[in-house]
Amino acid sequence: MPATSDLHWYVVYTKPRSEKKLTESLNKLGISNYLPLLRKRKKWSDRHKWIEEPIFSSYVFVQIEFERQSLNVLKIPQAVSFVMTGSQPAIISDTDLEILRISLENFAESLSVKDTSQLIEGLKVRIHEGPFAGRDAVIERIHGKTLVLVAFPALSKSVQVEISVQQIGRSAIS
Questions:
Q1: What is the C-alpha to C-alpha distance for residues 124 and 65, in angstroms, rounded to an integer?
Q2: CA end-to-end distance (rounded Å), the chain
Q3: Which of 41, 73, 74, 135 has the smallest set of CB atoms within 10 Å of its CB?
Q4: Does residue 97 contact residue 39 with C-beta atoms inside 8 Å?
Protein backbone atom coordinates (compact mmCIF):
# COMPACT_ATOMS: atom_id res chain seq x y z
CA MET A 1 0.00 0.00 0.00
CA PRO A 2 1.46 3.41 -0.94
CA ALA A 3 2.20 6.00 1.67
CA THR A 4 -0.61 8.49 2.16
CA SER A 5 1.63 11.33 0.96
CA ASP A 6 1.93 9.63 -2.46
CA LEU A 7 -1.83 9.75 -2.96
CA HIS A 8 -3.25 12.82 -4.66
CA TRP A 9 -6.55 13.73 -6.26
CA TYR A 10 -6.49 13.96 -10.05
CA VAL A 11 -9.18 14.69 -12.63
CA VAL A 12 -10.07 12.14 -15.28
CA TYR A 13 -11.74 13.32 -18.47
CA THR A 14 -14.43 10.84 -19.50
CA LYS A 15 -16.35 9.98 -22.62
CA PRO A 16 -19.60 11.98 -22.85
CA ARG A 17 -22.20 10.92 -20.27
CA SER A 18 -19.96 8.13 -18.94
CA GLU A 19 -19.17 9.57 -15.52
CA LYS A 20 -21.35 7.16 -13.53
CA LYS A 21 -20.11 4.10 -15.44
CA LEU A 22 -16.52 5.17 -14.83
CA THR A 23 -17.13 5.53 -11.09
CA GLU A 24 -18.66 2.03 -11.01
CA SER A 25 -15.57 0.62 -12.72
CA LEU A 26 -13.23 2.53 -10.40
CA ASN A 27 -15.13 1.20 -7.38
CA LYS A 28 -14.75 -2.36 -8.66
CA LEU A 29 -11.00 -1.80 -8.91
CA GLY A 30 -10.89 -0.34 -5.40
CA ILE A 31 -9.77 3.10 -6.62
CA SER A 32 -11.00 6.03 -4.52
CA ASN A 33 -13.06 8.43 -6.58
CA TYR A 34 -15.51 11.28 -6.28
CA LEU A 35 -18.25 12.23 -8.70
CA PRO A 36 -20.06 15.34 -7.45
CA LEU A 37 -23.72 15.01 -8.37
CA LEU A 38 -26.48 17.59 -8.23
CA ARG A 39 -30.08 16.50 -7.89
CA LYS A 40 -32.28 18.27 -10.45
CA ARG A 41 -35.90 18.04 -11.42
CA LYS A 42 -36.28 17.45 -15.15
CA LYS A 43 -39.44 17.87 -17.15
CA TRP A 44 -40.41 15.59 -19.97
CA SER A 45 -43.48 16.10 -22.11
CA ASP A 46 -45.54 13.73 -19.94
CA ARG A 47 -43.93 13.89 -16.47
CA HIS A 48 -41.41 15.38 -14.05
CA LYS A 49 -38.60 13.31 -12.62
CA TRP A 50 -35.75 13.87 -10.16
CA ILE A 51 -32.35 12.91 -11.56
CA GLU A 52 -28.76 13.25 -10.42
CA GLU A 53 -26.42 14.94 -12.88
CA PRO A 54 -22.67 15.46 -12.58
CA ILE A 55 -21.79 19.04 -11.68
CA PHE A 56 -18.84 18.89 -14.08
CA SER A 57 -19.75 17.08 -17.30
CA SER A 58 -17.15 14.51 -18.38
CA TYR A 59 -14.99 14.80 -15.23
CA VAL A 60 -14.40 12.40 -12.34
CA PHE A 61 -11.95 12.90 -9.47
CA VAL A 62 -9.67 9.97 -8.56
CA GLN A 63 -7.31 9.59 -5.61
CA ILE A 64 -4.32 7.58 -6.76
CA GLU A 65 -0.58 7.24 -6.73
CA PHE A 66 -0.16 8.58 -10.25
CA GLU A 67 2.98 6.72 -11.34
CA ARG A 68 1.62 3.38 -10.17
CA GLN A 69 -2.11 3.59 -10.91
CA SER A 70 -2.69 6.03 -13.79
CA LEU A 71 -2.50 3.35 -16.49
CA ASN A 72 -5.04 1.21 -14.64
CA VAL A 73 -7.44 4.17 -14.70
CA LEU A 74 -6.87 4.89 -18.39
CA LYS A 75 -7.50 1.23 -19.31
CA ILE A 76 -11.13 1.66 -18.26
CA PRO A 77 -13.17 2.17 -21.46
CA GLN A 78 -14.96 5.31 -20.21
CA ALA A 79 -11.72 7.12 -19.27
CA VAL A 80 -10.20 9.34 -21.96
CA SER A 81 -7.29 11.11 -20.28
CA PHE A 82 -6.12 12.98 -17.21
CA VAL A 83 -6.60 16.72 -17.08
CA MET A 84 -3.16 18.29 -17.44
CA THR A 85 -1.61 21.55 -16.32
CA GLY A 86 1.18 22.08 -18.80
CA SER A 87 2.90 18.69 -19.04
CA GLN A 88 1.86 17.52 -15.54
CA PRO A 89 -1.43 16.01 -14.39
CA ALA A 90 -3.52 18.56 -12.49
CA ILE A 91 -3.57 17.85 -8.75
CA ILE A 92 -6.69 18.86 -6.85
CA SER A 93 -6.22 19.67 -3.18
CA ASP A 94 -8.15 17.92 -0.44
CA THR A 95 -9.31 21.37 0.68
CA ASP A 96 -10.84 22.18 -2.72
CA LEU A 97 -12.71 18.88 -2.81
CA GLU A 98 -13.92 19.40 0.76
CA ILE A 99 -15.26 22.84 -0.18
CA LEU A 100 -17.07 21.25 -3.11
CA ARG A 101 -18.58 18.56 -0.86
CA ILE A 102 -19.70 21.11 1.73
CA SER A 103 -21.20 23.29 -1.01
CA LEU A 104 -23.18 20.35 -2.37
CA GLU A 105 -24.39 19.28 1.06
CA ASN A 106 -25.43 22.74 2.25
CA PHE A 107 -26.18 24.83 -0.83
CA ALA A 108 -27.29 22.37 -3.51
CA GLU A 109 -30.50 24.28 -4.31
CA SER A 110 -28.59 27.48 -5.08
CA LEU A 111 -25.37 26.00 -6.43
CA SER A 112 -24.39 27.26 -9.86
CA VAL A 113 -21.31 26.29 -11.82
CA LYS A 114 -19.82 28.83 -14.22
CA ASP A 115 -16.75 28.25 -16.39
CA THR A 116 -14.42 31.17 -15.72
CA SER A 117 -11.43 29.79 -17.61
CA GLN A 118 -12.20 31.99 -20.62
CA LEU A 119 -12.47 35.22 -18.64
CA ILE A 120 -9.32 37.29 -19.10
CA GLU A 121 -8.49 40.93 -18.62
CA GLY A 122 -9.27 43.02 -21.70
CA LEU A 123 -11.94 40.60 -22.96
CA LYS A 124 -15.10 42.23 -24.34
CA VAL A 125 -18.22 40.62 -22.92
CA ARG A 126 -21.96 41.17 -22.86
CA ILE A 127 -23.76 41.42 -19.51
CA HIS A 128 -26.86 39.19 -19.50
CA GLU A 129 -28.28 39.64 -15.97
CA GLY A 130 -28.84 42.46 -13.53
CA PRO A 131 -29.21 46.19 -14.10
CA PHE A 132 -26.59 46.19 -16.90
CA ALA A 133 -28.23 43.37 -18.90
CA GLY A 134 -27.72 43.79 -22.64
CA ARG A 135 -24.75 46.15 -22.27
CA ASP A 136 -21.26 45.50 -23.58
CA ALA A 137 -18.33 45.70 -21.17
CA VAL A 138 -14.61 45.02 -20.95
CA ILE A 139 -13.11 42.91 -18.16
CA GLU A 140 -10.67 45.18 -16.32
CA ARG A 141 -9.73 42.99 -13.36
CA ILE A 142 -10.65 39.55 -12.04
CA HIS A 143 -11.30 39.14 -8.31
CA GLY A 144 -10.98 35.45 -7.54
CA LYS A 145 -13.43 33.27 -9.37
CA THR A 146 -16.64 35.09 -8.52
CA LEU A 147 -16.28 38.82 -9.18
CA VAL A 148 -14.91 40.78 -12.11
CA LEU A 149 -14.39 44.49 -12.53
CA VAL A 150 -15.79 45.65 -15.86
CA ALA A 151 -15.62 48.96 -17.71
CA PHE A 152 -18.22 50.21 -20.16
CA PRO A 153 -16.34 51.60 -23.18
CA ALA A 154 -19.44 53.16 -24.77
CA LEU A 155 -19.25 55.94 -22.19
CA SER A 156 -16.88 58.82 -22.81
CA LYS A 157 -15.34 58.18 -19.41
CA SER A 158 -14.43 54.81 -17.96
CA VAL A 159 -16.86 53.74 -15.25
CA GLN A 160 -15.85 50.59 -13.47
CA VAL A 161 -18.36 48.32 -11.78
CA GLU A 162 -17.71 45.10 -9.89
CA ILE A 163 -20.23 42.43 -10.88
CA SER A 164 -20.73 38.72 -10.38
CA VAL A 165 -19.36 36.28 -12.95
CA GLN A 166 -22.91 34.89 -13.15
CA GLN A 167 -24.06 38.10 -14.83
CA ILE A 168 -21.58 37.86 -17.71
CA GLY A 169 -22.64 36.22 -20.96
CA ARG A 170 -21.23 32.83 -21.88
CA SER A 171 -19.22 34.05 -24.84
CA ALA A 172 -17.14 37.06 -25.60
CA ILE A 173 -18.37 39.62 -28.10
CA SER A 174 -16.27 40.65 -31.05
A1: 42
A2: 54
A3: 41
A4: no
